[in-house]
């Protein structure tokens, strides 16, 4: 997994290597291990899962902290909705608005 996050794209695995790793994990998980490399991948995933479970409360509470410069405001994503406010208080619920 760490290889995928490498800052140098040349050090990252290609799609074939990622597929092989997933296949090794799958084979190891279902008892179809063909080579010793499968066991190493299974071991790494088990270690990662153990670490995740042991630190679950840390991850849960660390997400409550927000960056002081972060901005959380609602904003309309579609510029065509800017005129909706004038129709928002309409009493006619079966009306069609045509521009």
Automatic annotation (TrEMBL):
Lineage top rank: taxon: Eukaryota
Protein name per its UniProtKB record: Serine-threonine/tyrosine-protein kinase catalytic domain-containing protein
